[in-house]
Automatic annotation (TrEMBL):
This is Peptidase metallopeptidase domain-containing protein. Residues 1-21 form the signal peptide. Residues 166-330 form the Peptidase metallopeptidase domain. Belongs to the peptidase M10A family. Matrix metalloproteinases (MMPs) subfamily. Ca(2+) 1 binds at residue 260. The keyword Signal applies. Its cofactor is Ca(2+); Zn(2+). It comes from Sphenostylis stenocarpa. GO terms for molecular function: metalloendopeptidase activity; zinc ion binding. GO terms for cellular component: extracellular matrix. The keyword Protease applies. A motif (Cysteine switch) lies at residues 125-158. Zn(2+) 1 binds at residues 230, 232, 245, 255.
Length: 374
């Protein structure tokens, strides 16, 4: 086969990048949903509301649908090495053990029974990142280092915050991280500003700074809204359920469920829409994962795994600050307050532009991939 000529590579790269830029995934973004719906708008259910029917279930019971609850616990790390297709509706020892570990992580009474308090916690919208990674719990209920019953390695933990097993972080000496948005989402400057504010909250207390760039493939952190199964093995589930997930350093992927009712601005607590989710609150949480923090068992922390709809939680707690400074040190200008600083935007490469933007780096990358695959 003849090698492609340079001009053919450039044309191919352009066509491929153009086609990718026009694969649009529209997210449900509302400027202020309280002004969109009447006060008597009906309450919509969440992805896991059916679990409320399990109130009072305990070991030895056999209840229709418990297999789905086992799949939930497996997804978040509480039941290891068991394909969901093999789950039964029996309340067995594995489920009881998972419930006890879950109750401990969330500061509930450790009974192994599906009581009201446990189920109220389980059905809340949450981050898609597991609480137990590779057998190691990334939550600490303030009782010293803990591991799940099936765990081998231990995680590092101080107070309530935690880091991922192996303590992944951005390389020592990193001062700035760039971030970019999936061109197919076509986000407005207003939406991008929400993420800039979220990054600024972490920059206030650490030695890191963050800068938006238009080069999606070249950015350290890549942000996008996706629906359902989007190719990373962690499918989204529609309204509520898992809201978003992000990968530990230095992966840089940050994905949000496009099917959520995201509130960009306005008072989310006054929304008439029961499924309204505050975008900045979720962004602040997921950025913590991008930087290397695991989940915290402290409910006031932004790194707590769950957040109710129509709730705003964007101010870093002392637990969050202690954790991130353990990884990266303190911002020398940090004075103990958490008033957000002005976000930095990249004006040199069109970082403030709306919609798709593809850099020379992108074209060269596609050209290289095409050439090497022939």
């Amino acid at each position: 086969m003849n090698k492609p000529q340079p001009h053919q590579l450039i044309i191919f790269a352009f066509l491929l990048s153009f086609s990718l830029a026009n694969v649009v995934v529209s997210a449900r973004l509302f400027p202020n949903v309280s002004s969109w719906l009447p006060a008597h708008a009906p309450s919509l259910g969440g992805a896991w509301d059916a679990f409320r029917n399990f109130t009072g279930c305990h070991r030895g019971d056999n209840y229709d649908g418990l297999a789905n609850l086992k799949s939930y616990f497996q997804r978040f790390g509480y039941i290891p090495h068991a394909p969901p297709s093999n789950f039964s509706d029996e309340f067995d020892d594995a489920l009881e053990s998972a419930i006890k570990t879950y109750q401990k992580n969330f500061n509930l009474n450790v009974t192994g029974v599906l009581d009201d308090a446990t189920l109220r916690q389980i059905v809340l919208p949450r981050c898609g990142v597991a609480d137990i990674v590779n057998g190691t719990t990334t939550m600490n209920a303030g009782k010293g280092n803990e591991t799940a019953p099936f765990s081998k390695p231990r995680f590092h933990s101080v107070a309530h915050y935690s880091v991922f097993p192996g303590m992944p972080r951005w390389p020592v000496g990193t001062q700035e991280l760039t971030y970019a948005f999936n061109p197919g989402n076509g986000l407005s400057d207003t939406v991008k500003g929400v993420f800039a504010a979220a990054f600024a909250r972490w920059a206030e207390v650490t030695s890191l700074t963050f800068r938006e760039t238009s080069s999606y493939l070249g950015a350290d952190i890549r942000i996008g809204f996706f629906s359902g199964d989007h190719g990373d093995g962690e499918p989204f589930d529609g309204s509520l359920g898992t809201l978003a997930h992000a990968f530990s350093p230095t992966n840089g992927r940050f994905h949000l469920d496009a099917d959520e009712d995201w509130v960009v601005s306005g008072d989310v607590t006054r929304s008439a829409l029961s499924t309204a989710v505050d975008l900045e609150s979720v962004a602040v949480h997921e950025i913590g994962h991008l930087l290397g923090l695991g989940h915290s068992s402290m409910e006031e922390a932004v790194m707590f795994p769950t957040i109710s709809s129509r709730k705003k939680k964007v101010v870093l707690s002392q637990d969050d600050i202690t954790g991130i400074q353990y990884l990266y040190g303190s911002n020398p200008n940090y004075n103990g307050s958490t008033a957000t600083s002005a976000p930095e935007r990249d004006s040199s490469d069109g970082g403030s532009r709306v919609g798709p933007s593809w850099s020379v780096f992108t074209l060269l990358t596609f050209s290289y991939l095409y050439f090497t695959l022939l």
